[in-house]
User: Fold these one by one.
Assistant:
Number 1:
Amino acid sequence: MQETQPIHCPYPDCLSGRIVRNGSVKGHQRYYCKRCERYFGATMDTLSYRLQTPIAEIAQALFALMQDGSIKGVARATHHTPATIRRWRKNATYQKDELIASLLAYHASLDNSPQLIAFRAFLATPYPASGKSKLSVPS
Ligand SMILES: [Zn+2]
C-alpha cells in the first residue's frame, strides 16, 4: 500500500484538513473527517475514488481551471493529481450540462453571467484542443 500526500476531506462542502486515520476496510486505509464527521477511503486516485468524486467538486475544479489556466495550479489547490484534472477536463465535454447545473447549485449568482457563458464554451471545447496525436502525457 502506498502512502498518500496530506489528506483532505474529499467532500466539496467540507475539504477540511482535520483528518484522522480510522482503521481499514478490506486492506484499504480509512479516514475520518473531524469537521464533517464523515468517513472516506485513502485511495484518492484509484478507479473507485474517481467514480465517487462528486460532480460538484469536478465542476468547481474545472471552473478554477478556466480562470487559472494552469492544470498544475488547480491540481495543487484541489489536492488532486494533474492527471486527474486533465482527465476531468477531457471528459467535461460529455457532461457539460451536469457540470454547469452543479456549479450553479453552489454559485447561483453565476447564472447568466459572462463567466458562466465562458465556462459553457470552455467545457464544450474538446481537450486537448488540437487534433494532433498528442497521446497520454506522463504524470
Ligand atoms: Zn469533511
Number 2:
Amino acid sequence: MKRTRMIPWTSLLLILLWPVAHALAGTISGTVKVNGLRSPENILVYLDKAPQPAIDLSGARFAMDQQNLTFIPQVLPVPVGATISFPNNDKVAHNVFSLSRTKAFNLGSYEPGKSKSVVFDKPGIVELRCDVHAEMLAYIMVMKNPYFAVTDEQGRFTIPDTRYLESHGITGIPELPAGRYTIKNRHAKLKTDSQTVEVPATGPVSVQLNLSRGTPGVLYK
Ligand SMILES: [Cu+2]
C-alpha cells in the first residue's frame, strides 16, 4: 500500500523539478567584488568566446540619453549591428562624438528634444564624449555575442541577461550550451581579469570575480 503511493509522488516530484533545473541550465550568475572602487556597478562582464546565435534586431531599441550634462547609462552594451539613438533630453545643446576606432562619428550640435542615431557594426569599445561639456563621458560596448551583462549596484550579474535584452526588445536568446567558458570584465578603472567557468548540462553555475584597480586590457583580441 505504502509502496504504490510512493511511486506516483516521486514521479510527480521529478516532473515538477525537472523543468526548474532545466530552465536554469546554461545560465551563469555571479558577483563582482572590487578593490579601490566606490561601487561595483557598471562593470561589463562577458564571455570572450561563446556561441554567436543569430540575433533578431528588428525590434531592438537602445538609447544613450543626455540629461543634466550626463550620458545615461554610463555603460551601454549592445549586440553588434544594433542601432543606438542619442536623444537630447537636456536643457542645453550637446555635440556627441567618438574618436574610437570601433566607430568614429560626430553628431554635431543639436537642441533639446532632438535625437540622432548611429549603427554600431563592429565589435569593440566606443568612448563617447561631448564637444561642449568636457565632463561628459560614457562607453558603448559593441558585443560579438549576446552573453554579456553589466553589474548592478551590488555587483551582481546574470549571463545571458535576458531581462536586459528583453527590455531592449531582443528576445529568443538561447541559454549557454554546457561547456567551458572564459568570463572577462571591462571597466575603465579596473584591471581585466579572466576566469574559467564550467557550465554544467543541468543546473545553474555561480562565480565570484575579485577585481582591483588598474589599466584595463582590450575588449577583444
Ligand atoms: Cu554636452
